[in-house]
Each structure stands twice: as C-alpha cells, then as structure tokens.
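To close the section, here is one more complete example, presented without commentary so you can practise reading it yourself. The ligand is oxa(dethia)-CoA.
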Amino acid sequence: MSYGTSVLGLGSYLPEDVYNNFYFEQYVETTDEWIRTRTGIRERRFVRDGMATSDIATLAAQEALKKSNLKADEIDLIIVATATPDRLFPSTACTVQEKLRAKKAAAFDISAGCSGFIYALACASQFIENGLFQRALVIGAETLSKFIDMKDRTTCVLMGDGAGAMVLERTDGESQLLSFYLGADGTGGQYLELPAGGSHLPASLETVEKKLHYIKMDGSLVFKWAVEKMVLSGLEATRRAGLDLKEIDWLLPHQANIRIIQSVASRLGFPMEKVLLSLETIGNTSAASIPLTLSQSLREGKIKDGDLLLLLGFGAGFTWGGAVLRWSGGKNERE
Ligand code: UT7
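Output:
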C-alpha cells in the first residue's frame, strides 16, 4: 500500500510590534533608502520580551489545527524547524507539544537554518508516506530579534520574527507533495553562524563581551551561494516531479533579499508576477519565511486549487532545498 501526503490547513503568527527601517538609524549608520534598495525590506516585526520561539510556534500551530478541524491530540508528530530554539535542549518541538497538549505526538526540532521548513516538510512526509504516522504538524518559527547585534548594521536590519505551521495528513490518493531535493555543504558553516553557546564555544563572560552569542554573516558570500543553490534546487525539484519549469504556477523562494529572489527568478525563467513575496513587510524570518509567505498569498487569494508551487530554501549550514507542491483544499484558507 502506498500513501500520499495532503495539506489540511495552515496557520501563521506575526508579532504585533512593527519596526520600520528608520528605527535602526538610532543604533547604526544606515538609511531607509539603503535597506529598501539593497534588500527590499521596509519593515519587520519583533516579539516582546518574554515571548519565546515556542510561544509563537504554538500560536501558529493552534490556527493551523483550527483550520484543519483537528484537536491537538489527533496529531502524531510535531517538527519545529528553527535556528532560534527556546533552549539547546529540550527541543522547542517538545515545548510546543506541551503547550498544545498534543499528548500523542512525537516531537523534535530540525536545525537547517532558513531551509528548515523544506527539510521539515520532507521529513514529515516520509514518516507519513511510509505509514508510521497519520498526521503531522510542521512548523517554521523564529525569534531572530533575540540573536541580532543592534550595533551590527550588516545583520540587524535584515531579520524579523514570526511563525508558520502546516498540518499534513496521510491520504490513499495522490500526494500533494510531488518532489523534494535537499542539499548541504558544511564548508559554508563559518559564513553564517551563531558562534558561541554550544559545545564548540561554551558561553562565558568572554564570549558575551565579544558578542559571539549574536548572528554573524558574510552577506555577499551568502548572497552568491543562495542564488546558485536555489537555482539548482529549483531545477532538481522540478525534474524530480517530472515537470517542466513552465508548468509551475508560482515560485515561492525563501525571503532573504529581493535581489537574491530576482536573480533566482530570472535564471529559472519566472517573471516577478509569478513570484510570491512577503519580505517587504516581514523581513527575513528564516525557517518561518516559506509558510508565512504561503499563508499570506492564500489570504490574498492568489493561489488557486490545482496550482503548482515551487518552494526554494537556502540557509545556514549551508543547507538548501526545493519542493514541488500541488495546492488543493486547504479548506478554510480564504476565510
Ligand atoms: O537567509 C539566508 C541567509 N541570508 C541571506 O541570504 C542574506 C544574503 N546577503 C544579503 O542579503 C546581502 O549581501 C546584504 C543585504 C547582507 C548586503 O548587501 P550587499 O549588496 O551584499 O552589500 P555588501 O555586504 O557588499 O556591503 C556593501 C556596503 C559595505 O560598505 P563598504 O565596505 O563598501 O564601505 C557595507 O558595510 O554596504 C555597507 N552596509 C550598509 N550600509 C548601510 C552593509 N549593511 C549596511 C546597512 N546600511 N544596513
């Protein structure tokens, strides 16, 4: 018996507090014009003190469960993709399991940076399609604001907080997830990292003084890799789905920089009208960017039943990935 995966519903959560580009002028030498033209970002949202990744992941998950007409104890598996977990351990997924009271669910995190949602989706669908689990909750959630150095203009203006969740269910019919392609290259690890706080460099007074508990990035190097690997992921995922790029209705790339997205779209032959975007108002939300953009595009009524979506990710690791999704149902998404 072979099974497929269907998408039951989506949920999203964005913090209430909006920070526009002018906010950063008090901390670093930057301008709204530089940020808008170099990144495409106009504003982003940050959580308030006391709110952790598991809190916003839980809020997104509750909405996804509601739209799927499911109770938390009907979920068999929770995967949280995040680069900003509540703690090193236990996993954020276990904390979400507790907050949802999803008593039946196995739970774990995936650490794949901004590609995390695609990795998590691939992972959940394997469990579902081999028959181990019937229903899974896949969440991308980040509180990047807690890990940015407000004195580092090369990173602080880029990030935003948010969470997106998707409920998947086993089906005897055709899978909505048509293909996956995943890749990694650890030699890129040093160019996008949070250096201290792990076993390699445990937290100490010195690591804090040197600000090694904040995100460090070589932006222009990451930029070039992101373009190259998202293009590769797009070609591979489409080929594995047995499709031609021309048959794809929507390109849904990770939202890090509008210039990266334009370059990827142009190399894959997509006009920008066929690219789904959310970056201008939410910034780079890492593992949350794909489900957040999908939710927003559904609310806007852009995606129709039967549309083919090409999801692309690139992030810390380096990691990258692509997935082809045939949209169908998501019953209550346009309400
Ligand atoms: O989510 C996956 C991981 N992240 C990404 O994919 C991000 C990838 N990288 C990027 O988006 C871009 O590389 C950045 C937006 C980070 C930087 O844009 P860039 O066009 O690559 O600029 P650059 O790093 O080459 O810097 C150009 C100049 C530098 O000044 P000098 O050295 O030429 O004097 C930077 O110091 O721009 C300066 N700069 C800024 N100026 C004003 C860097 N950040 C800022 C800033 N405001 N916020």
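Once you have examined the tokens, check your reading against these statements. The two ends are 35 Å apart (CA to CA). The chain has a mean pLDDT of 96.
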